[in-house]
């Protein structure tokens, strides 16, 4: 059961912006963060670095827009990209795990998807986004389907990415 002080701290975190909550949780748990972004193009990192003191916990961000960059920077397997594609659960998981390994961080969030307007298929329509979150040895992947124009899809993905990190950090007890 949480103490009054812990409950008060959690309540204060919930009243702040998502990126402030992420940084606060990382500081509280003494963990470090890296990011591996594709369709969001560094927008998650941009939100994180808007928080004063983020440099205490945010180590680096990779913007790996091409398959080659995903392989070279994050260690995504060529076979994954060939069989599953860059917009897949398997790719998102490998991006998150590879980003954490490359940056030597406790946590790494990856985002890969189709922001449109082109590029979608019946199986993977525009707005499909996969996110992976590596947290202290365990990788969790989620699939999202956003609607709207390119900017709207990217904005929704950034918000969900920050929410995903918060969810994973809250579940991790350190």
Unreliable stretches covering 5 or more consecutive residues: none
Roughly how many Å is the radius of gyration? 16 Å
The number of distinct helices, counting runs of at least 4 residues, comes to 7
Biggest β-sheet, characterized?
A: 5 strands, mixed
Listing every helix as H and every strand as E from the N terminus to the C terminus, the arrangement reads: HHEHEHHHEEEH
**Proportion of strand residues:** 15-25%
Distance between the termini: 15 Å
- For the secondary structure, the number of strands is 5
What is the chains' assembly state? single chain
- Give the structural class: alpha/beta
- Helix content class: 40-55%
Inertia-based shape: globular
Spatial arrangement of strands, main beta sheet: 2-1-3-4-5
On the 0 to 100 scale, the average pLDDT is: 93
